[in-house]
Structure prediction request, 524 residues.
Amino acid sequence: MPYLGMRATGPAFLQESALSSSSSIALAPMIAKLRLHAEVSDDDRDAILGLPYVFRSVDKPRSLIRNNRPEYCAIILKGFAFRHKTTRDGLRQIVSFHTPGQMVNIQQLFLKSFDHDIQAMTKCEVATIPTAALQHLALSRVSITMALVAQTMVESSIYRQLMLNVGRRDARARVAHLLCEFAVRLGDEGIAPGRAYYIPMTQQQIGDAVGLTSIHVNRVLRALINEGVLSKKGSEVRFLKWEKLQDIAGFNSRYLHIANLV
Amino acid sequence: MPYLGMRATGPAFLQESALSSSSSIALAPMIAKLRLHAEVSDDDRDAILGLPYVFRSVDKPRSLIRNNRPEYCAIILKGFAFRHKTTRDGLRQIVSFHTPGQMVNIQQLFLKSFDHDIQAMTKCEVATIPTAALQHLALSRVSITMALVAQTMVESSIYRQLMLNVGRRDARARVAHLLCEFAVRLGDEGIAPGRAYYIPMTQQQIGDAVGLTSIHVNRVLRALINEGVLSKKGSEVRFLKWEKLQDIAGFNSRYLHIANLV
DNA sequence: CGTTATCTTGACCGTCGTCAAACAGGGTGG
DNA sequence: CCACCCTGTTTGACGACGGTCAAGATAACG
Prediction:
């Protein structure tokens, strides 16, 4: 049975357990993310770190959230996840990717129903916070609400950019753009041509994100590799010609609203 | 020179003028929209109605906002507008449509830069509220903040749905889905087969919204009309076979989070 | 070491884009 | 009131980008 600071061992479900609110640094990634787009005072930080939560671990192909349990909000502490929707006949569209520190279902604080799903791309460590506690915090500390909202505003901006890609660019640019975004979101200090980035996406997932089949994603990636723009070994990607990749993608990081990049 | 409650006569720019905060019902559409997704108490309503604003009128192909003026937030009182981005080489993607009562640039309250544009689809009447006044209101009345955020959450949900359409459905379904969404957003009380809906979009705009060329949009619309699914005379659209249109689109209004529809 | 997921490649085909030209409609000015 | 735009719609011919199907090669994993 999971409890504060201890990994859940059973199936990847949130099991009932006593919640503690003693301050801990487990939620620190959340602070770091919030500070990318808003001011977070030390008081705010402490209030967040003092939130009650349950720690759990979710294995790869499983859902981070459960639609029938709106009373918990999930924060990724480690690993990657993606948000996706599906059509009636099973076609999937990935609409966003999530990295450590992000709260993946804030909308539960504001909307009644949850109409999509969030899956772990890698093994994930997740903190689950009771929605009620979060609501209380949001009401009592407006600055935290503002920071959370700023984060969702950035997510919206990323949605808009992805829409432009999927709707108006060709396959090559779409794939290149996705890689550019990942590179910038993962590497805080500029892109080094030789450095390896861990991008654990299957070609199927890339296709689902940019509206292509995995087969065509493969053709595009092969071409980029043959041209020496990037190299790839498993999930390790190296950006050999970063400028050229950005050019192919029509990429400009402005839409990510990362303060120290603008 | 525009002043409270009076139409601006000059070019469609916000001219400087004295701001009044005497309560007026001009902002009432905003209340109505907020109440679609959140509780708005009478006190909150009065606080919103008491906001200072400048009334102005924007003609069809012009921008509702000016990127260099983040100190004002715009609310549509009458008319339609759309939000769009463009690639380097001029390809346009419309990412959302906006109807009366919506604040089109709340993100200015949270993010520094504004990386896209909002244009009037029809002649629009707009109220422009000083960002500072709105910020003050948001800080002092958390419930209003919550209502505004709920609205942006719904907008995000619409983004995700559009992404699914553009990324994973064929042209026929995409166009049908766009029409379904408009019908539901415009008609509050269900879709009457004979009723005319005013949908003032060019086929070029439909294409820009769903990632198609205007030419192909035309082919799809022609087909739908020939099959008797809908009829169209100028901007007047009639949904003759509403069930069938929904079926073609794979449409389900859940993602719009309209309370009385769920 | 076997089993399964993922990647890779080729051949073929369809949806949708491109190009071009004609047509309708609504506003403006003579 | 008609001529004349300009914008938007409509249609056809043609081609390409990317999907589909199928099969084999690699890599991941228990």
User: Anything to note?
Assistant: Helices of chain A lie at 28-37, 42-49, 131-140, 142-168, 171-186, 203-210, 214-226, 242-249. Strands of chain A lie at 54-58, 72-78, 81-86, 92-98, 117-120, 124-130, 196-198, 230-233, 236-239. DSSP finds eight helices and nine strands in chain A.
